[in-house]
Amino acid sequence: MDTLNPEELSSPVIDINAEEVKQELLEKYPTKVARKRAKQIVVNAIDLEGVVPEIQSNVRTTPGLIGQRGCTYAGCKGVVLGPTRDIVNITHGPIGCGFYSWLTRRNQTKPKGPEDHNFMMYCFSTDMQEEQIVFGGEKKLKQAIQEAYDLFQPKAIGIFATCPVGLIGDDVHAVAREMKEKLGDCNVFGFSCEGYKGVSQSAGHHIANNGVFTHIVGLDDKVREGKYKINMLGEYNIGGDAFEIERLFEDCGITLISTFSGNSSYDNFANSHTADLNLIMCHRSINYVAEMMETKFGIPWIKVNFIGAEATAKSLRKIAAYFEDPELTEKVEEVIAREMPAVEKVREEVKARCRGKVAMLFVGGSRAHHYQELFREIGMETIAAGYEFAHRDDYEGRRVLPGLKVDADSRNIEELHVEPDPGRFRPRLSPDQIARLEQGDLKLSEYQGMMPEMKSGSLVIDDISQFETEKLIEIFRPDIIGAGIKEKYVIQKSGVPLKQLHSYDYSGPYAGFKGAINFYREIDRMVNSKVWKYLKAPWQEHPELAAKYVWE
Amino acid sequence: MLLRHTPNEIKERSALTINPAKTCQPIGAMYAALGIHKCLPHSHGSQGCYAYHRSTLTRHYKEPVMAATSAFTEGASVFGGQANLLQSINNIFSVYEPDVIAVHTTCLSETIGDDIPQIIAKARDEGKIPAGKYVIHANTPSYVGTHVTGFANMVKGMVDYFAEANGHKEQWINIIPGYVEPCDMEEIKRLTKELGVPSIMFPDTSEVLNGPQTGKFHMFPAGGVTTADLMRTGAAVGTVALGRLASGPAARALDTKCKVPCEILDLPIGLKATDIFIDTLRQIAGVTVPDAINLERGRLLDVITDMHQYFYGRKVALAGDPDQLISLTQFLVDLDMWPIHIVTGTPGKKFETRIKEITRESPYPVNVRAGGDMFLLHQWIRNERVDLMLGNTYMKYIARDEDIPLVRYGFPILDRIGHSYFPTVGYRGGLRLLEKILDALLDRKDRDAPEESFELVM
């Protein structure tokens, strides 16, 4: 449909000189800040091999600059573990962290029946007081776990450490071990996800991945029925995205063993190592689990993207290609053929009104990339984009991984040493198959990043600041910006609509075919809304006094 | 069922909080600091804190919420956050140019024991604070008190840093509005002006967090108390502080520091509390209450008498902050309603005593808990049903499961608008509250009435 060819990619995107814009963004900063930010603001350029310039990312936030990032706890408890319905997640710390992460990420979930456990609506906290800060909080934590167990008899309890926990030396892992043993039929595990660790929520994703992999994945060896068994990684069911993707899988005859972690349950995780393929949606937040599962159990992974109709079709075809079964290919093509007419109809209608408009996306660790596809499908170009917490591989592609320097902040995040499981490692593909697949279009364990898919001359900005955002609006007046709740009204007060791409502005789904339709319509609504024409009152537009007020 | 795991049987918990009716100090401090003109609140902790606070305040106000952070790393957590805060102060004054940076601490910086005044002094010595600009602070450890305490501490910080006695008393009074909405602050100012009492109100978040759409973003909007006015608070004849928990500490600090006497009143929500507020202002300033205010009062009273039958005898459950709950409970009792389950997450025995005093004539046993949570409130409701609930958006889960009408009140309200535009303080505010309560009760009556007794006139 609308993928760009190499020529288009290397043609400049707009008339404004991006290098000059970059200088303008930097000129007000103190020298040291400007020097640092200069490495995080890059004018995209794609050479003939598809190699893009280096962008500094996953580095410390500059104090005082005002940005988008959250903390490690938010990445661990909020993002990765939050969407699972039947684990009692206890925040160990003062009340705030638990309170703020209570239901605010819009992860939808659908329990199987009225008896099925669903703790998503609950917020559990040890509500640490000064006494625990001084004398230690382990006793209270144990008691809290006991109380949660007595009240709910959950299958599992997760403990999430907040900043003071690490400082006062509470050992959440020791408490977890002790309580797991004591309770007997409840899996208890801890996460050292103190907010100060790492440089952003990204560290929390990694910690969550490690914990889920260590404590849950592989606990249940029961092999489920199904010809094409997959896991969906890095999909968090915001606004029902996972439901739409699940619908497509079901129609294609693909068996979803587990999602990490939208609409998921503890049992799904435990059984996930029996799948034959891992699909990665959000590369940033979940690639660790995929890699560890590949090493330990032999499950290959591929990068997919269900944001955008064309991207969805492509991803389904990738799955079919992997399984090399004509029956699946046929089914996938049938589903695509069935879904596309409705998409095309709305797309053409909306494109007529949106073509030529421009967007900017500053969000997350994958959405700034994925959503460019959706905008492109309705004729809108993304002229500037950046991630909040991604690493270089998410920008430039995994080709940079071998050369990545690990700095002090990242070194503190544990890298698990994983080995093939003696009894359960099972290569899913023969070397011949791998060679054959690679010769085709299917790249295993590969993510090429965002920048190779953006035009040369577009701006790529990591961890954008409030100041830079304001400047960009002033210079470019984009038709829409995609970011988060903190940016929402700042940008809209400037007269530019903002689409929240974390929470979807409480709408969605935007994944899959139905999601694409929803998104086209939503963007159409936003960029063509009448309200923006009324920013000035008549007397502000024409302040001159033309006549006296006379009765006659 | 959304809250399918909440059992009817109540077991006392000593360690596990479930569905809190409070949050932590720093967010209250951030909200208060936004009530100073050209002030940038600053969170001294890891960046997650300010991200969470800004997000929550933004969802509640649907407005820009500006604040900065020291962005602690593991290194800063071990060696102290001084370098981060100094860097932050320098960057903020260079890039964003506020008049004031209001630093509040977090559980992180409090646990490691960062000395904020010392860091501010160092910043000043190193020339990082431009002439005529200020850095103030409040200690707001998240493991003590709640968001209400944080608000109170930052407001007290304003007194500590700015208030100056000039040796004689000037003809104005200070008003500390309490932890209320921007429109409530606006309404308190209006009533004061209507009475003809010159005043300085601090903090003042009106026109900061309920600003207009003009097509132009202002990092520092029109509202907020100015630093010049904050300095003048020390020369006022007196202070009227609304809400004992949220405003009391600042009022007492002003008395201690500048010998400005204070009256600490309940928040002027409902008839009786507003009467006391107006009467106090009248007596302090020696003014006559104008007819315009008598008219407002009369209208509120009129609606109460007109619609009394729908209020009478209805049982109510409430969750929220102590200052609001005390006045609300009084108002409901004055309407002949019966508040029977009252929970706040903010600890304090005085609150329980006060509520018991207000509800002493209740024909039903009254459950009240300071330092309780919404899980407990839900269990109480399961055991003794109510006709109406008042509380923040998280109450909607109980409302749906139990099929009980909910009037949204308090913080945070994440799913409706109005709370930042239409006040609930004063007589007009009381009228709005009545309207909301009536709408909820009568919509329910309309929904549930059998066809043969579906009423046209109510």
Give an account of the 3D structure.
The complex is a heterodimer of chains A (552) and B (458). With 552 residues, chain A is of the alpha/beta class. Chain A has 23 helices and 14 strands. Helices cover 43% and strands 12% of the residues of chain A. Chain A has helices at 6-10, 18-26, 31-40, 72-81, 95-100, 130-135, 138-152, 163-168, 172-183, 201-215, 241-252, 266-271, 283-297, 309-323, 326-354, 367-377, 392-396, 408-411, 431-439, 466-476, 485-493, 512-527, 538-541; strands at 41-43, 87-92, 124-125, 156-161, 187-191, 228-235, 254-261, 277-280, 301-303, 358-362, 381-386, 459-461, 480-483, 498-500. In chain A, α5 (95-100) links the parallel β2 (87-92) and β3. In chain A, 57% of the residues are buried. Chain A is globular. By secondary structure, chain B is α/β, with parallel strands linked by helices. Chain B has three domains: 25-149, Rossmann fold; 170-289, Nitrogenase molybdenum iron protein domain (Rossmann fold), CATH 3.40.50; 293-453, Nitrogenase molybdenum iron protein domain (Rossmann fold, 3-Layer(aba) Sandwich), CATH 3.40.50.1980. Chain B contains 17 helices and 14 strands. In chain B, the strands form three sheets. A five-stranded parallel sheet of chain B has the order 12-11-10-13-14, sandwiched between helices. In chain B, strands 3-2-4-5 form a four-stranded parallel sheet, sandwiched between helices. The longest helix of chain B has 23 residues, at 426-448. The model of chain B has no long low-confidence stretch (mean pLDDT 98). Chains A and B meet through α4, α5, β3, α6 and α7 of A and β1, α2, β3, α3 and α4 of B. β3 of chain A pairs antiparallel with β1 of chain B, so a sheet runs across the interface.
